[in-house]
Amino acid sequence: MVRIETIVADKEFELSRKYGLRWLAIKLLEQDSDITSKVHHKEILDAVGASAEHLKSIFGDEPEIIMANGRYGFISGACQETIKSTVASRHSTSDMIDVIVTNRILGLPIFLILMYLVFQLTFTIGTYPMSWLEQFFDWAGKAIAGFWLVGSENWLKSLLIDGAIGGVGGVVVFLPNILLLFLAIAILEDSGYMARAAFIMDSIMHKIGLHGKSFIPMLIGFGCSLPAIMGTRILENRRNRFTTIMIIPLMSCGARLTIYALIIP
């Protein structure tokens, strides 16, 4: 930490005048995209990378998790020393829910059940509006084709039917899945469960270099890659988002099973 502060003070004079050196060192270790984008000296980035690897080897976790644990530990200690609470107020409803959803044994099954519900909402319920849109575009294509003689070829006919309706319609039919997925993610985010889910999966996902939140779009990828890739917007870190996007196409959706059945004897 001190080495990073020293190099930043020497190489990034303007940045160190604007922000505190300790704060800059912490944010660089946490891979904060806003601060990292303002640092242009390779020596600083190399020092940050070396310090991050050193912290991982000692604590066995990512620097951002280590920093967060340190903050929460300090806050918890300060609260215990300064706040006096009655027995009735010690355990709020939120605290009791946290005990259940982040429990070492119950946390993962609850998470998998909720992910199953999100999956069902996105693809089972989303099938109905998808079929309605497919029927609409099929009807629109036939209606426009009716203006020309049967078997006649025309560039305008091809543009409207094959280009506009076929092309746009092929994308728009996925809109219900995307909207339902983002609705489910918004509910999980607003309820506060997304942070708990990331906490539950974080240790598992970090072993393959991903954030805990990456599990949700990867799971959705078994249904369809398009809404899954859209779902990576919940990841704040650009590197984690890009890595997850590259992995999602490897998830086998239902449409690929037919191809596998033909290829595999």
TrEMBL record:
InterPro entries in the cross-refs: FeoB_Cyto (IPR041069), FeoB_GTPase (IPR050860), Gate_dom (IPR011642)
Classification via Pfam families: FeoB_Cyto, Gate
Residue span(s) of domain Nucleoside transporter/FeoB GTPase Gate: 172-263
Record domain FeoB cytosolic helical: where: 3-84
GO function terms (MF aspect): ferrous iron transmembrane transporter activity
UniProt KW keywords: Membrane, Transmembrane, Transmembrane helix
TM region positions: 99-119, 168-188, 208-230, 242-263
Signal peptide (UniProt feature, chain positions): none
Record-level GO cellular component terms: plasma membrane
UniProt-recorded name of the protein: Nucleoside transporter/FeoB GTPase Gate domain-containing protein
